[in-house]
Amino acid sequence: xxxxxxxxxxxxxxxxxxxxxxxxxxxxxxxxxxxxxxxxxxxxxxxxxxxxxxxxxxxxxxxxxxxxxxxxxxxxxxxxxxxxxxxxxxxxxxxxxxxxxxxxxxxxxxxxxxxxxxxxxxxxxxxxxxxxxxxxxxxxxxxxxxxxxxxxxxxxxxx
Amino acid sequence: xxxxxxxxxxxxxxxxxxxxxxxxxxxxxxxxxxxxxxxxxxxxxxxxxxxxxxxxxxxxxxxxxxxxxxxxxxxxxxxxxxxxxxxxxxxxxxxxxxxxxxxxxxxxxxxxxxxxxxxxxxxxxxxxxxxxxxxxxxxxxxxxxxxxxxxxxxxxxxxxxxxxxxxxxxxxxxxxxxxxxxxxxxxxxxxxxxxxxxxxxxxxxxxxxxxxxxxxxxxxxxxxxxxxxxxxxxxxxxxxxxxxxxxxxxxxxxxxxxxxxxxxxxxxxxxxxxxxxxxxxxxxxxxxxxxxxxxxxxxxxxxxxxxxxxxxxxxxxxxxxxxxxxxxxxxxxxxxxxxxxxxxxxxxxxxxxxxxxxxxxxxxxxxxxxxxxxxxxxxxxxxxxxxxxxxxxxxxxxxxxxxxxxxxxxxxxxxxxxxxxxxxxxxxxxxxxxxxxxxxxxxxxxxxxxxxxxxxxxxxxxxxxxxxxxxxxxxxxxxxxxxxxxxxxxxxxxxxxxxxxxxxxxxxxxxxxxxxxxxxxxxxxxx
Lengths: 159, 527
Known about the structure:
Chain A is an alpha/beta fold. Chain A has a single domain (2-153), classed as Pyruvate-ferredoxin oxidoreductase, PFOR, domain III (Pyruvate-ferredoxin Oxidoreductase, domain 3, 3-Layer(aba) Sandwich), CATH 3.40.920.10. Helix content of chain A is 32%, strand content 27%. Chain A has five helices and six strands, in the order βαβββαβαβαα. Chain A has helices at 15-28, 77-82, 109-117, 127-134, 140-153, and strands at residues 2-10, 32-36, 47-55, 69-74, 87-96, 122-125. In chain A, 52% of the residues are buried. The mean pLDDT of chain A is 91. Helices cover 39% and strands 16% of the residues of chain B. Chain B is built from 21 helices and 19 strands. Chain B has a six-stranded mixed β-sheet with strand order 2-3-4-6-5-11, sandwiched between helices. In chain B, β9, α12 and β10 (261-264) form a beta-alpha-beta unit. The model of chain B has no long low-confidence stretch (mean pLDDT 96). Classes of the chains: A alpha/beta, B alpha/beta. The interface between A and B is large, with 51 and 51 residues.
């Protein structure tokens, strides 16, 4: 068993919380884990990523090589695409569809979604909307994590 | 035993605590901050009352740690790479005084400058000071090294530099804990002159430092963290330092690298192994995170002998951090196939947060300076450095901690008017008070804005040393009371604040304006 996952989003959207939860689950399951994250200046409203590697065997690099990720989990649609160079040929991309608008030149939504939909293995959901229905849009990151579990792990990826 | 899930920084902290640490000193700086933060919230550290509060800057932190070492106890001092420049005076001299209780100088380098002004490699400071350096390649080594380094430090009565880089500092992995050692008892140095660097004594201490260098090389050759792995294919020998070892092994399935590998995690260089590799292999590839220290050392000025490859001959980029793909290319392997970033993706640089007090301060400052044009604002290191970016375009310099005030003074000396400094409260406490003293002494025509958001925000809300006493400090240093002005940077006070800034620009002398409003995240946390 070996899974390389890129987590993507904007600083403050909660991807490190997703990473920490998967991390503890991996350690509890007796798996090896490496999880590299970004702190400091780049966190302030900029693009943030985390490399999460889980394996039954010892892991060397803290960083996932380009072209090797099994999965990109993103809480923002444009950020999902930023890390495409990391995705392997058969890798999956799962993303929230709600844009985070804090830059003047944010691309046209249509174009963005076309790019995402053109990938052979993609799942896109409005996690903000679902979270709001559940009580608060602050749970958005947990909705995305739940979607990974239900839509991907349980149904599509066989271990 | 259950594994702990720790960042590299946290593994160092836990390792130091378990190795009988009595005091942790430091100033926050990415990527080193989490070492002390971990100790601050660790229940065992709290129960043992390990010293764990932040210091004013890296220099005072290093001296405080040296004082604890003088008193016989084990201390760690932490900082980012550029912090070691601030601490360079006590750091370099501590190689001559040496240690009594074990002392570790833990420095986190930031190759690729994710959150920094340069990418200097602290191993050069290790070589410069003639101290041993340890450089973990993973979180488990980061945990184990403090105990090893304290023992090495006490064996040779010498501080040890522990160097990590961003990727290890901020990457988590499972770590297995070992036994917990007791703290040292208070005890004086055996030699009462050890810490007295009068020239006559300093010369003796320096000769002593030189005399133990061969022993330190032996220690590296026998270090559990350095290893030589034989390989059948001697057309290439690979030297992999610290984290670079991981990027090397990542490219070989089941650890099957055909070439001999020298893994280096302790310096000075293990000479025996280097000689063996150079005599046996046709070419040497040096993989090191940071600057080409090892490559340059074994290449030599004339580069005669074995062919050495690395950052200097273009096998690897000359700057920036390494990654598995770059190492793969240097090994001559084919690139993994990867997609391009779609064109539709726009850049998303970091920005001041919505509701940030600095944003309002910059709008007011821009308005006040409108009549003079652009280029008059010297700034500093912190969140407010983002005021350089649109839509603010409010500042013109960012060099080093405290430089805003000193540069404004120098520019005013040259005749620049207006000359404005913008510095954060924590940065002011770190290195702003001494240049303010210069400004007062020469009655420089400057306006100094101390942006007081009540915290060290950029590195994650650490206390600032000057909390609640900025006006008193400025008054004590000699700024006239009527030219210490406190404003509240809110849109409702815009006109009034612009008027105050304009008044102080017109005053010929030292003015201090303190825009005071808590960081928006601190405010949310409190309410």
